[in-house]
Design a protein that fits this description.
Blueprint lengths: L36 H14 L8 H14 L6 H17 L4
Helix pairs in contact: 1-3
Length: 99
């Protein structure tokens, strides 16, 4: 089962639904939108900076989890997997809650 995509910073992107009303991957035509290297590094920086504002979660723990997740996802090659991991990070940053 595919989970619904998170909110994005881009107003141009819109989710595509199939006839069963389940969420599909973000698509523009037939290609999946890949985040650039700069966008991924900016997300990492923003998540690390966000850790300084945490009140109920230990900032050191949060930074370690973020860096471990980025290190784990460093070897991803599929555009769908990269896009999903990026959207997951954006959702964490936009929602302001630790998943």
């Amino acid at each position: 089962m595919v989970t619904p995509p998170a909110l994005t910073l881009y107003a141009v992107r819109a989710p595509v639904r199939d006839e069963r009303s389940e969420w599909k991957q973000w698509e523009v035509g037939t290609s999946i939108i890949m985040p650039t290297r700069l966008e991924i590094l900016r997300l990492y920086k923003n998540l690390i900076l966000y850790s300084n504002s945490l009140r109920l979660t230990d900032p050191i723990y949060f930074r370690r989890k973020v860096s471990n997740e980025f290190r784990k996802n460093k070897s991803l090659t599929s555009s769908e997997d990269i896009s999903f991991a990026y959207q997951k990070g954006l959702a964490l940053l936009n929602r302001g809650a630790v998943v």
